[in-house]
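Hey, I'm writing a tutorial for new members on how sequence and structure tokens pair up, and I'd like a real worked example in the thread rather than a made-up one. If someone can provide the structure for the chain below, I'll link this post from the tutorial.
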Amino acid sequence: RFKGLYFSGNRVVLSSVINGASVLESPWSETINGEQVIIRTVEVGPTKRHLRFLVDAPDGDAGRSIDEEGYQLLVRGKGESVSAVFLKWYDNETRQSFHQSRRTWVTVPKSEKPQRFEAFVWQGPKKALQGIAREVARRKSPTDLSKLLNGGEARYPKPLVTKGEVAKDTAAPY
């Protein structure tokens, strides 16, 4: 159930309830080592069920999954161009989970505690993969999305004034 869309500065947070769990998500784009990377920050409140999130659905093969210190990686493609999804959890108790079948799914296990993860989605030259992986591994906990629900500075600080005018044609509705 969709609850709302919140703006805070140049960030947006989507709020919903999925199988009884509160879910906040903020899509974002950053330049990491000179490459544009799409980042999805997701916060899941306490949940009594496992939840699945579709992270990526690229063309091509099923890819290969690699567990590294600090993140999990799914790489697709051959040759000089690859696509990659890095999954980084910010809760040491959370188990990492990728499902592959030409789509990248993340399973969030049931938990009494809130859970937070980021999915970094990137496509580019294979030679840039290692540099991005290094930066993902170093990354600290992302912004607490619940703090962005109160909004930021006003986008339009001047008041918007409108003026109605009665129509001269008395048969018209206005």
